[in-house]
Amino acid sequence: MKRERATELLREMLARLDAGERPLDLVDEVYVFGSHARGALEPGDLDVAVVHRTDREFAAGLVGAMMSGRDPMAGMKRALKGNKRGIQFEFNQNSDLPAGAEPVLLWKRGDALSDAQARLAAIEPDPGAGRAPRDEMIEQFEGLDRWIPLPVRARLVEMVTAGAIDIHRVELPDAPPIRPDAIALLARRWKAESPLRRAAGAALRYTEDLAAVTGAVWVQGDPLQRGQSFELPGTVWINLGWYDFSQLLFRLHRGAQTFEVIRPTRTQPLHALHITVRDAAALPEL
Asked: Which of 99, 133, 135, 197 is deepest in the core (most CB within 10 A)?
């Protein structure tokens, strides 16, 4: 993406924030970070960090989206960017951004639009900046990193470097599961044409052939069999699009393994990261 295009996307976002329509009335601060913040002339994707509050209505929407397997932040994303592409959002994760991300304040609640526009204009182009390096990268992320949020990559690389976990990249078969309870779960959760159903089905089919899967199986927070405990060692979590990633460390401490399906899609190849514990003593503390 050219810098001019990225800057125009930010101008449009500032106008939406100034209007303050729901749910943007919950946003308190917006930062830009990464290549654009450093002045790169061709920053690639635009990295934006959003700090927001949650009220009862918004929380109910989050729960409903997660229960149905949808992106809980989709509404906030649409409100911020409209139908434009090329923007990567981080929500309430400024403290988890890796060193060197250097978020730059763009907008805060109470600003006049002119104040935010002046901050944007003050981020000067720097021909020497270049595109930001792909921070927190390992071989397993190659070609998939645009769909793996930077804080997620940072957390996983930290645990791999410490020798706490292993990550195996898997190309999932485009095939439905065989187990009756898996078939029933898919039919209960998603419509036949849903990319989430395709992704979950492919992951379930893969785990059916995996000898290491000996415990309970949970899909997007839903057990294959009612009454299954999620704390049994060997439990497998299948998550779609980083659903509930904040619980990964808790699950690893209990001996679980997880399949993170990177990008559920209707037609494109499906990739997952199979994350297992190598050394529980090296896991970060809860």
From this structure: 197
Can you give the residue range of the structural domain that contains 61? Answer: 3-122
- List CB contacts of 240: < 8 A, sequence separation 6 or more: 69, 196, 199, 200, 220, 261, 264
Closest CA to 10 of 30, 26, 29: 30
Count CB-CB contacts under 10 A for residue 218. 22
pLDDT in tens, 215-263: 689 998 888 887 777 777 778 999 998 888 888 999 999 889 999 999 8
Q: Please state the φ and ψ torsions of residue 59, each to the nearest 5 degrees.
A: -60, -40
127 lies in some domain: no
By DSSP bridging, strand 104-108 and strand 165-171 are unpaired
Q: How many distinct structural domains can be found in the chain? A: 2
Write down the mean pLDDT value for the chain: 88
What per-residue string of b and e applies to 188-198 under the rule 16 or more CB within 10 Å gives b? Answer: ebbeeebbbbb
Domain identity same for 207 and 109: no
pLDDT at 100: 67
